[in-house]
Amino acid sequence: MANNRREFIKMTGILGAASLLPFGKLMADAEEIKKSITCTLIPSETAGPFPLDLTSNSFYFRQDVRESKAGVQLNLKMKIIGEGNCLPMQNVRVNIWHCDKDGLYSGYGAETGLTYLRGYQITDANGEVEFITIFPGWYPGRICHIHFQVYVSSSYAAISQLTFDIPTKQAIYTANPTIYTNGIDPVSLTADNIFADGYVHHMATLTPNTTTNGYNSYLEVTVQGNGVTGLGHLEKENAKQFTLGQNFPNPYNNETNIPLRLIHDSDLSLDLYDLQGKKLANIQKNGLSAGEHMISLNMEALGLATANYIYQLTVKNSKGTFIDSKMMSAGQ
User: Fold this and answer.
1) Which of 45, 75, 162, 210 is 20 to 30 A off residue 98, Cα-Cα?
2) Domains of the chain
3) pTM of this prediction?
4) In the 8-state DSSP scheme, what is residue 239?
């Protein structure tokens, strides 16, 4: 598993991608959540004193970031929207990190070497990512919050934070005193040094999830750039060697096609990964000539379910080895 993840994420420092598996029944009542697109650019906020480079270790490519941490389950969905046209941003990477129930962050101080409550996903055809985590605690001076970064391209990333309405948040702490032993959050939004100047676009919803006995949360985040339908946000670093297109149809049902264009004669290796970073399939095509090509996928023939996957293309030619990847989304 570790080797599979390393193979997959070794290129994500230049990957402008992101999202995840549908939760199915787990998120069934997420449709109840209001999703009004405001298309207002998310205010930038400090990354905080505890950011880690989530892409330096492929272990962080995961949907469930809880590890062994106790807390009320929180299913967090985020939708990324392009400011230029108010359309979903496909294939962008979304990182999240936050403190545990006691206000501690992994990777620092006594928590050095630990990795809990950190992870990233790639947005799907709807511009959405989903994470399974715990409801965070708080620490002196800061209101309860979750950090996130939307990595749009190698030249731009939006860094901000989200928070929750106070009555619902305090009710979670009050109903679970043996878990959240610090009690209710004493800081108000207007007293918080991050949200004091405004918090409208940072407020994520909180709705009970009767399946998990936890909560669902939802936030729409608008970032610089244009969303696109049918085509993901393309990075240009590999443009002198090849272009990897968005699979079509997307979303798909069992069968889909991956277009690509080669600048030079090349050998290709196409890998399919699930959203926990496990490699599930490999297709080799050697000695392809420069020009337009298509790789057709039949999930049944590959022994795979129709689901969300990352497809990664490795191109080898006389110029070297080049890698790019995108998300393919399952149809409903």
Assistant:
1) 210
2) 2-223 (2.60.130.10), 242-328 (2.60.40.2550)
3) 0.70
4) T
Q: How far apart are CA 118 and CA 139, in angstroms?
A: 18
Residue 22's SS3 state is coil
User: 39-65 as b/e, with b when 16 or more CB fall inside 10 Å?
Assistant: eeebbebebbebbbebbeebbbbbbeb
Q: β-strand 255-262 against 242-244: which pairing, if any?
A: antiparallel
For residue 265, what is the DSSP state? Answer: -
Q: CA-to-CA distance for 82 and 221, rounded, in angstroms?
A: 9
Model confidence over 241-256: pLDDT tens digits? 898 999 999 999 999 9
Cite the beta strand spans of 230-303 per DSSP E. Answer: 242-244, 248-253, 255-262, 266-273, 279-288, 291-298
Phi-psi region of 263 (alpha: psi -120 to 50; beta: other; left: phi over 0): alpha
Between the alpha carbon of residue 245 and those of residues 2, 13, 127, 242, 257, the distances in Å are: 28, 19, 17, 10, 10
pLDDT in tens, 308-322: 999 989 999 988 888
